[in-house]
Fold this sequence. Notes:
- By secondary structure, the chain is of the alpha/beta class.
- It folds into 2 domains: 1-72, Nucleotidyltransferase, domain 5 (2-Layer Sandwich); 75-239, ATPase, nucleotide binding domain (Nucleotidyltransferase, domain 5), CATH 3.30.420.
- The protein has helices at 33-43, 58-67, 93-105, 140-149, 170-193, 209-213, 226-237; strands at residues 2-7, 12-18, 21-28, 47-52, 69-72, 82-83, 110-116, 119-125, 130-138, 200-205, 221-222.
- The strands form 2 sheets. Strands 6-9-8-7-10-11 form a 6-stranded mixed β-sheet, sandwiched between helices. A 5-stranded mixed β-sheet has the order 3-2-1-4-5, with helices on both faces.
- It starts with a strand and ends with a helix.
- 33% of the residues are buried.
Amino acid sequence: xxLCIDIGNSSSKVAVFEKDKMVFxxxxxxxxxxxLQKLIKEYGCTHGIISSTRKTNETLIKKLKRAVKLLVxxxxxxxxxxxxxxxxxxxxxxxxxxxxxxxxxxxxxxxLVVDLGTCNTYDFIDEDKNYTGGNIAPGMRMRxxxxxxxTDKLPLLEAEDHDHLMGLSTAEAIQNGAIKGIILExxxxxxxxxxxxxxINVILTGGDSLxxxxxxxxxxxxxxxxxxxxxxxxxxxxx
Length: 239
């Protein structure tokens, strides 16, 4: 059994895999070691992997290393793909894992991974298992907050969907600008990366993935747990 831990900016996700099958999943606001210890004992976990976008919790890692054979994901970890990023030490661990997850889902096809959260990230892996880079943009809530913060008169609004493309009030214009701007951004990346010779899979993940998935007529895959799938894939490759 494999214990996979994804520590993000606002929460942590934990999963247990039996080979490729996820048998446990939970999101934590705060991640107490006692909960992990219970999981390790209950499922008989022998291996583990941890990925963090925050400062490394050395105490947690030391405790986990005493309980399982632990892999701490970093830029030196052996990956199931070729990383062509020029600054691999700065590449987000969640982005690495997301690409590995896409490779697990579509091992012989090109994929665009779109992680929709605090920031939106766009990462591309080709059909030859080459990670050729990606981009980072403000997420939906960050866009709404920025319009309020950097202006005197625009209000701070919650995300709300509207059927029409162009807003018919200032509130709708702000909401459409944030939401439909992201939709058009994603569609633009799909057009730019796809070709007749090389169709691509598009995988949405992250906290806002299900919110946006319904907006696309083209076949889009929504996998909110893609990072955990990728962590498990990397761990297995490092046995």
